[in-house]
Amino acid sequence: MKSQPLSGLDELMTEDEMSQAQLQGAEMLLELNLAEIRHSVQMSQVQVASCMGIKQPTIANLEKNGKDVKLLSLKRYVEALGGKLRIDIEMPNGHHFGMKV
User: Fold this and answer.
1) Vertex 74 angle, CA 70 and 79, to 5°
2) 100 phi and psi angles, rounded to 5 deg
3) Which residue stretches of 53-86 are H helix?
4) How far is C-alpha 71 from the geometric centre of its chain's CA atoms?
5) Contacts (Cβ under 8 Å, ≥6 apart) of 59
6) Fewer CB in 10 Å around end: N or C, the chain?
7) Of 2, 3, 99, 81, which is closest to residue 44 (Cα–Cα)?
8) Helices 56-64, 15-40: inter-axial angle, 10-degree rounding
9) What is the pTM of this model?
């Protein structure tokens, strides 16, 4: 059996299925990035939760449900890791607007 490129799957999916797959992919990337950032500073979920004054399951949920993270929660999470949150907005003309949160 000859293998097919993954791009061939696009043709088999409806627009709804494709949109859902893209949303899930974006969520997975954010989920991975939050946990990866925490690991890079060698902190556990328990340590981050303690810094934020919350319980560990809340951190697990924050990392798991990345797309639903409120900006204030993300700011507190990043600060608990010792970082500072910045937002970079890229406009269609290529201009960037950066701001501290």
Assistant:
1) 150
2) -85, 145
3) 56-64, 71-80
4) 12
5) 45, 46, 48, 49, 52, 77
6) N
7) 81
8) 140
9) 0.65
